[in-house]
Amino acid sequence: MAHLFIRQDIRSIGSGNSGATNVARTAGKLAGILTLLGDLLKGALPTLYIIHHAPLPWAQFIPLLAILGHCYSPFLGFKGGKGVATTLGVLLVLEPLFFGVMLGLFISIVFLTQLVSVASILSILLTFITSLMIHSSVNTSLLLGLLALFILIRHHENLSRLLKGVEAPFKAKT
Question: Along the 174 residues of the chain, how does pLDDT read in single tens digits?
Fold first, then answer.
């Protein structure tokens, strides 16, 4: 998406990440929003297909492949985003309640801290904790726990910058 706006490979500028945050920072708000929507659809569409064509108790774990494909795309040299928007897409279809919880937390935390990485990590961790507190299904809590762990791992560089106090606040290019 960013290539349409800036005629450069997004992986060669900014953080080098192909996700919506880097796109918004380097190519502008519209490019970032379109990337965000595309990444969300990467999770939602395969999940929607799976739940209608493989209604098995464990089928909700198959969308993890969509998230892995986004994060380690063979089309991008096994690089990609960090999986947050794609996770939201999966949750939108599988668990709309937790989609709302995670999205609300994410927006609130970005508003308060201006740090997308903090919002990404905390929103999935708090969504997982919420699933445990309201006694959701074991499969749902397990899925959210796996996603939380995965997103935490994908943000290891951000965590290092946060600990050093050098993580950049979010500011989209205008």
Answer: 555 566 666 667 777 788 888 888 888 899 899 999 999 999 999 989 888 887 666 676 678 889 999 999 898 888 888 999 999 999 999 899 999 999 999 999 999 999 999 999 999 999 999 999 998 788 889 989 999 999 999 999 999 999 999 998 888 776
- Domain count within the chain: 1
Judge whether 10 lies within some domain: no
Q: Is residue 31 part of a domain?
A: no
In this structure, is residue 57 part of a structural domain?
A: yes
Structure tokens, 5: 């706006």
Note whether residue 91 is domain-resident.
Answer: yes
Residue 172: exposure state from Cβ atoms within 10 A (0-12, 13-18, ≥19): middle
Domain around 52:
43-164
Could you give the CA distance from residue 82 to residue 142 in angstroms, rounded to a whole number? 19
What pTM does this model have? 0.88
